[in-house]
């Protein structure tokens, strides 16, 4: 993994230009606020990068809504804060036009579609759960449980503060093979439109000891759909996002 | 997957009934409530889950349930809170492999496929965060 440093860096530095606009129905002041533009990291989560957006728009809405939880939508599709930003973009933006136009809401929280995000700690515990789950698959949870609290903090702060070196100094251990064995299983998720993602147990090598390719993975998870167009996103301890047409 | 006839079924329609039941519903009445709904038997094989209390969490009288594969963890948590008569504001955490808490929109099928063993998925629950 360490040899892929440049690639990891490129992925880490992936950014998306986003244009945030307050939902026009929620504008309470005489004049609607200007849109707010941000370059956001693909690997981050919206609640970590939208404090300024909230600050900008909250003055323009009804006073009794100002404490409400902010949520986002793209084309009427509520955006799940607990998916990495890059995954959301790849899921919903098929015809790429930048900047990505996102509508900001404070009213009518879609309880059925979104989880609440009361604070940054909620993002942290979600993120750490994902890291732990990935480690259960890769190393039977041995690496993450041998880490100290300060390692967990460093991983999280690295992501939160966009510090590549800080993050990878710890994440490196999570991506190493333990002894002779490569990963036990490959952590991955297939996001299929709005439905739940698909996750299966897949070993990294074939029975003949050959390393599996992406094609193997797709065939294992979708044995009957080899001719259909699939859009694939890979999500592991560090969230690499790629589109693949099969 | 569930082929176990003894396991009560956990269905959407059952939740309000459970919520209105007495404090400690008897095992028998649960059996009737949860297996008696013929109409909801779908083609999909249900998945057996085993709920184990940890720490200070109250014990569930019935620990083994059969659930639809596409049920979300959030739905199971809500069901358990009703079953255990927890206050809405009280928290309940579910853990897989005693190591991580799946997100509320994680579905049972994915978890069973990856972490199930002996034909069932074991979930530990507690009222405070146990494994971080």
Automatic annotation (TrEMBL), chain A:
GO molecular function, one term: Atg8-family ligase activity
Domain Autophagy protein ATG5 UblA residues, every copy: 11-106
Membrane topology listed for this record: Peripheral membrane protein
Gene3D superfamilies named in the record: 3.10.20.620, Autophagy protein Apg5, helix rich domain, Phosphatidylinositol 3-kinase Catalytic Subunit, Chain A, domain 1
GO BP terms in the entry: autophagy of mitochondrion; cellular response to nitrogen starvation; piecemeal microautophagy of the nucleus; vacuole organization
Domain Autophagy protein ATG5 alpha-helical bundle region residues, every copy: 121-176
Family: Belongs to the ATG5 family.
Name of the protein in question: Autophagy protein 5
Lineage: Eukaryota, Metazoa, Ecdysozoa, Arthropoda, Hexapoda
From TrEMBL, chain B:
Protein location: Cytoplasm; Endomembrane system
A matching Pfam family: APG12
Record keywords: Acetylation, Autophagy, Cytoplasm, Isopeptide bond, Membrane, Ubl conjugation pathway
Assigned GO CC terms: Atg12-Atg5-Atg16 complex; autophagosome membrane; endomembrane system; phagophore assembly site membrane
SUPFAM superfamilies, per database record: Ubiquitin-like (SSF54236)
Domain of life of the organism encoding this protein: Eukaryota
Single Gene Ontology BP annotation: glycophagy
Region annotated Disordered, chain positions: 1-41
Gene3D superfamilies membership: Phosphatidylinositol 3-kinase Catalytic Subunit, Chain A, domain 1 (3.10.20.90)
Molecular-function GO term, any one: Atg8-family ligase activity
Quaternary structure annotation from Swiss-Prot or TrEMBL: Forms a conjugate with ATG5.
PANTHER family: AUTOPHAGY PROTEIN 12, UBIQUITIN-LIKE PROTEIN ATG12
Annotated function: Ubiquitin-like protein involved in autophagic vesicle formation.
Family: Belongs to the ATG12 family.
Protein name according to UniProt: Ubiquitin-like protein ATG12
Lineage: Eukaryota, Metazoa, Ecdysozoa, Arthropoda, Hexapoda
